[in-house]
Request: fold
Amino acid sequence: MRYSQLFIPTLKQSPADAEVASHQLMVRAGMIRQLASGIYSILPLGLRVLRKVEQIIREEMNAIGGQEVFLPSIQPAELWQESGRWGFYGKELLRIRDRHDREFCYGPTHEEVITDIVRRDVKSYKQLPLLMYQIQTKFRDEVRPRFGVMRGREFMMKDAYSFHADEASTQKTYEDMKRAYSNIFTRCGLDFKMVEADSGTIGGNFSHEFMVLADSGEDAIGFCDACDYASNLEKAALAPPAATTEPASDGAPVETATPGKKTVEDVAGFLNLTPRDIVKTLVFEHEDGLVAGLVRGDRQLNALKLKNHLGCNWLVPADEKTIAEKTGKPVGFLGPVELELDIYMDHEVAVMGHCVTGANKPDAHLTGVHPSRDIKTTATLDLREVIEGDPCPRCANGRYQIKRGIEVGHIFILGTKYSAALKAHFLDTNGKEQPCVMGCYGIGVGRTAAAAIEQNHDGNGIVWPMPIAPFQATVIPVNVQVDEVRQAAEKIYQSLQASGVEALLDDRNDRLGVKLKDAELTGIPCQIILGPKNLEAGTLEFKIRKTGESKEIPFPDGLASLPDLIKSC
Ligand code: ATP
Ligand code: MG
Reply:
């Protein structure tokens, strides 16, 4: 394509609200423009990149038997009421009414729609398994749209759904997906990790996220420095610690005055102890009431671990008023000894020989508490948040490392959640009616492109990995007003096109500096520069965007070697 005919509105300045490199550079490189908060127009250069990502996704989805469909973005409320999500989804769901006052939503995801399709036409195990995917626009009214297309409200997603007659078939597709996703992100040139992710109430290792490693990532991931265990930090597991050699408290707990000392630090300081000698009692509220969680004073409780253990729909820290009303105990001095709540104790607390807890009285704590003797628990479990250096739960010698990541893909076994609710049933080999077992698998197309920029940019702009670059090479004549130069550039461009290289010809009548700046900013992997001096010397300049490395290639004799040179970049 010819630059002069393309719409690539590059900018010198970043928009004021662009916090991360990918957002700044996508706008500056003329790839996207914001229409409204979290809503973007994708311009020609941007679309070329998204289409490349989509093509890679398509090829990998097709390779594992995926069939492409295209589902409506507007979905009737009735379907969402049937699945139970109309009430549950909250404000992220954009609800709209038609002229007959019927309620609809703009699809944030398509489980309901695809399950409706399957329930109408799939009747027998003989029609299963089925794997369908689409690449389509989603709308989620995100609380905090930011980072450009990385967390937009309207965004492109590849979503796939699979339907199975049994668990074994579901597992097989899940494994296929893991491989396909790994291929996709590898082919996009990304440095990523597949991590275990929260699978909510389904439990087990039935959900994995694909995280592109980048400091700007919104997620934290924990992974072992010795084995291949990796997990979203919110789910990262810890094995129970070895039994302690610490002597157990030999007498009953002793009530000790701690006037006005409510925080772990204050209590520890006052008693001349350290936070790890204290046990924190944290009260949470969920749909069935209050529960207490216990972790060591120097640790953080991971509420998601508690929520998953309880299998509840929601769980939040209880506020002081609710705690005071429901337990009658003073917040800040609350303790687990003789507390009438279900108590969930972290493994580390269970092995403590003695500790300090609240005394359930104002201005007092109990010292010499021996948790396994003095605290009545409902369960002892892994409740705390992982920190760097913690032992790996899988292997003997590994330690946790923590890094930031951008979630670009998420795969999930759904079980029969939607098929049961929407009655997507089939007849099994015994003629018995069963709900299909389902899986769902998403990739953010725009987010993947943005993540690639987060990993591949420098002070001058984007440095596209070749497979998703908008063009593979840009031919830059130093001065198009010189006939010989213009014609030579044209010749190079034509020859690249003819050998299947996606080339851009910067035929603008602009200064070389302007063209080089734009070439750097837009991140095209190879630059082919030539001017009158080159023509005299019988060479052209071949420059690699990533390394800045430049070499002279004989011209016209070396023309035939260019495609291979470009492909090797
Ligand atoms: P997040 O935790 O980032 O909100 P999610 O768990 O809501 O993601 P899924 O519902 O699993 O995401 O969606 C599948 C994929 O769609 C994600 O892995 C991500 O790549 C992409 N995605 C989700 N929300 C957005 C968004 N607001 N903007 C751009 N891409 C998104
Ligand atoms: Mg989300």
Observations:
- Residues 480 and 486 are 5 Å apart (CA to CA).
- The two ends are 20 Å apart (CA to CA).
